[in-house]
Amino acid sequence: MSSAVRLFVGSRKGAWTLTSDTARQAWTLEGPQFLGHIVNHVVADPRDGRTVLMAAKTGHLGPTIFRSSDGGRSWACSSAPTGARPGTASPASTIIRCIPGGSPRTRAPRTAPC
Questions:
Q1: Which domain holds residue 58?
Q2: What total of structural domains would you count in the chain?
C-alpha cells in the first residue's frame, strides 16, 4: 500500500504544500505561504522528516533561507548566514536551492548550507 506524499511547490508568487491521501487519489492544498515573495526551492530534510527549508527572495530581507521545524506550518529565518557568496564579500542576489546539512565545500554556486 502506498503512503501519503507531501509536495512542496515554490513559485514567483509564494509557496504551497500539496498533501495526498494514502491512495494518492485525493490531494489537499495548503497555502500560499510567503505570498508575493519569490520562492526558488522548498525541501524537506530527510534526516528528521519534520524540518522543511525554503530558499526565498523577499522584498525586505533579500535572499533568505527560512526553516520550519513543524513540517511547514510555521517559519523562521534560518540562523545560517546567506548574504555573501563563498569567497567574496559581495552579497548573493538569489539563492537557487538549499541542501539540508550541506557543506560549503560541496555545494554548487548559489546554494546555501542549511
A1: 6-108
A2: 1
